[in-house]
Every structure is written in structure tokens, then in C-alpha cells.
Amino acid sequence: MIVGLALSIWAIVHMKKVGEGNPFDAYNHEVAPRTKHLMTDGPYHFSRNPMLLGIYIYDMGVLLWLLSWWPILVFIVEVFFLTIQVRSEEKRLEKDFGDEYKTYKRQVPRYFLK
Length: 114
Hints:
about 0% strand, mainly alpha, single chain
């Protein structure tokens, strides 16, 4: 759980510092200032979504800690809805950063494996 939290915090701080904003759109509604710079270094060098990867790692730690099947169902639903969110963000990032984002998208996995 600690590794997941650390990764998410690193990604958030890096985004704020380097990207000078946030890519988060709540299902096509901007809820925070958009990033001014495409981030391809730091935690974004190995994952296009290190914040979510951190959340998923944290969640898996919680699942192991609870040793129950019900949280697995919640985790599956969470992954489903967050994947829809990520796809929406990817479309917006393609509009904002064009070919630079498309190249980055081909080179770096959405979460951690290509």
C-alpha cells in the first residue's frame, strides 16, 4: 500500500511542478487547470498514468490486507470506470499535444506493461 501511495504522490507532485496543471477531465468536464506541458519524464517515463497505477497498487495492498472477495468486485468496477476516464483524458491530451502525445503514447504503456 505504501508503494502505491508513494507512486501516486510522486506523480501528482511531478505533474504540478513540471506539467503546471492537471489532465483530469471528469467525463469531458474540465475540473482543474489543464497541463501546459506534456510530461514524459519522472514517473511518466515508464507509465502514462502513474497516479492510477499507484492507486491500483494501493488497492491491491488493501485487497491482500482484507482477504475478502467483496473488495475485489469493487476493484473491478473501479478499474472499469477509471479506464473510461483515462480514455477520455487520452483524447483530450491528443487534442492538446497532438503528435507529441501520439508518439509518447506509442512508446510508453498506459499503466505498466505494453
